[in-house]
Amino acid sequence: MIGLRDTITLAHTKIRSKRLRLLMTTIVSGLVFGVMAGATVLVDGASHSLAAFARKNLDGRFLVQGSPNYFGGPSSLNPNDAALIAEVQKYHVAYIADRKAAAKRLGVEYDVRTEVLPYVEDTNPQVPPEYRKSVNFSSPAWLRYAKDHPVQASAKDEAAFRALVEPLGAREVYVPRDLSHLRLGMLLGGREDLTQAPSGDPPKALQTAIGQGSFTIVDDTLLKPFLARGQDSSAGSGVPVLITADDALVTFKEALGLSSRPKDPTAQVRWFQRLRDRVTGQTFVSCYRNEAELARVEQTRAQLAEVAANRGNRDYVAPELQLALPTTPCGMVTVTKDTRSAETKKAQDAVRAFEQEFNPQPEPRAELVTFQVVGLLPSPAPSTSGVDAVIGGLVGTNYGFGAVIPKDSLAALPEALRHDSLFALPAPETVDPFMGPMTQQNFIASFPRVEQARAAVADNSCMMNWTPRCDTMPFSLQTYGTNYLAVDDIVRAARPVIIALLAIAFAIATIIIWAMMGRVIADSRRETAVFRAIGAKRSDIVSVYLTYSLWVALRIVVFAAALGLLIAGTIHVLYAERATHMAQLAYAVFTPDPTFGFIGFRSPVLWLILGGIVAMSLVAITPPLLRNIRRNPIRDMRDE
Amino acid sequence: MDERARDFLASFGGDLEAAVAALRQAATAPPATGEGDGHDRVSPRHTDRLPARSRPARPRSGRTLIEVTDLAKTYRVGGQQIRALAGVSLTIDEGEFVALTGASGSGKSTLLQLMGGLDKPSAGRIVIDGADLGRMRDGQLSTFRNTTIGFVFQFFYLQPFLQLVTNTEVPGMFAHAKRGPRRQRALELVDRVGLADRGRHLPREMSGGQMQRAAIARALLNQPKLLLADEPTGNLDSVTGASIMDLFEQIRDESGTTVVMVTHDEDMAARADRVIRLRDGLVVPEGVGA
User: Fold this and answer.
1) Which of A383, B76, B146, B249 is deepest in the core (most CB within 10 A)?
2) What are the angstrom distances between the C-alpha of B67 and each of B130, B137, B143?
């Protein structure tokens, strides 16, 4: 076969012919592919930058949070099922019997008509008879039945989570404890306002995460970059807590004379560091009241309102048991007057005992908790411009939704400050009629490599793409803490659109290249015939034209790559510094390295696009070329 | 008849009438005025007026180079069978310069193309230099064309974006010839066809005659035994055409290359050693008017 150098020499002569057509093809195809290449380079650059920050942020850990997945469940449960209703009815009969026996034993008057029935009936005549009667899922009988017949097949516990993530490469599993059920309310200036007087919006400080009691206990390891240095937990004066920059500003702005967040990201970095230095060590107090005490507060409030409403009413008979709201921070409701007779007291105690037997309630409890700020969590600035919003979305974190208590630092505190019994209180369990007991416990897995974390999330996430497999997933995984897979999430969400755009772009470019190549080859029939006449083998001609095709493809590839690089490079020059500062803020990584970049060449999609151009050019040239070399050279030489 | 007369007649294929006509034409022609010695060489301007046998023919080896036997070629055009060749038989000796003439559609170009292995005959046999073209596969035919045959076309068919020397090298590229010797030979050939000062020029910078000379140089690169020329002067003026004919003669004389040329120009045909006339796909027997 003809030598490579000679092949290139002859192919080059083709390049010099039909220059305008070739130029147009190169430009149009190059533009289409260039934009695609640019987008790919951008996405890859951003993606790797995020991973680099995440790696630095947590010493090479990539965190994934798993939430129990309750999408599936027994679909066979039919609330109108007569057999099920009959079964629940049996539980109802047993419940009533228990209640009657208890009432008799405690000397309480009991009216069975006050009980909630195990089913509800729809009297609408238009409803078919078989659908009129259905199980009442809020009835005590159903709750008893559901307890005896758990429908959730598999547990969503730590063991189940480990079984899922460890084969995927997870090294550690952490179990954060959500404390929002404690409803810890922050005291403003050491006082609490329990009157709930309608005085407009609550103060801003009470609208923050710490104001609303959104606390989570997390392992110190996962909070390392956000913990202020030099904090000795054992010498602390309260429960250690990391709060968001925004919460810190709102809570301590006046007390510490803090300045507002500047707009410029570079200035924001300095502002964040100053803010962290200022608020570290500051304390605030919150109050815990259990359900019983909260009920008493509510009862007191209603009673006070009733008394106030009847002030001056001579016919009004004041309550025998009069209550007062607490007067000390996080104090208990107090009894100010009790004129009940011994008989009444006895009867009321009996009723309480009766209710306790069937629906046990703890004794009223209130506890003051002192928190000490030991670090600052990032809270991205609200973005106004489109670009900042996009970058903000990329580098955002989900640490900042609440306040976080470092678990190990908490454990190192003196016992008097730890509030062990309070933080150990379990969250109330929810029982779903279809799902059974539903725990909302989340778990966190740590992966040493971003690819492992990415694969784990991709295989166990139903946020973006719902598939029938989602029903069988025990946990739904997503990134935790830093948003290092933000780009992946965007790409995954936009995948159908991206695929469609890629297909359209490829189709357009294919048509252009196909038409150009087809025309060039068709125009080369005589040349092919002459080559054949002077002794070229078919394989020689194929070599020459394939080389030509590769050459054309290479020009388009170079043009597309250059354009892609130009697009990504321009965005990099314009926004990389800003993105770096935003990422530094979000990840609390303030070292010179890493920096945020928008240029990356590791995506296989990029090479797929560039390789696709070459493949397409070769495919485009093949049919007309094969036709040409099969033609009778005489025929083509005669057509002058 | 003396020996010279017999040879002279033989050079016309025994065609007495043609020989006589040539002698008459020679007798009425003006004296040669060519440069140089002015005796044994003629100006290209006047060459076309000279009879084919007015100059000494190079002694032929007598070895048959081309043997065509009962060659037929039928084309199918629009459902109709067109008979281009209807049983041609002829032989051409090594070192012979043969002109194929005939009216348009007589089959002369078809015969040339079949000889060049560019097309397959419907019937018959072509043997060139002992090789039966009909028994060769496509690749073998390509190699055979590349090494044994040189083609010259009416429209030159040079590569428009290759310099003249590189254009000349193209058959060598397909022959896998080494670059150095190939370039050297191309330069020699370019010089030989009188285009030494045009070696770095592109075809568009040259005249028709120069392009045809370049095409001839290209055809000679692999030192073929046979040069097939299809209307090589058809696109040139008569003076330029005559110079091309000179070149063919020179090649034949110096290298012993067999030249088979298709032409409808009787004057050009007359420059050949032998003229084979075709009519309706058949060789017109010698002595019969075309």
Assistant:
1) B146
2) 9, 19, 20
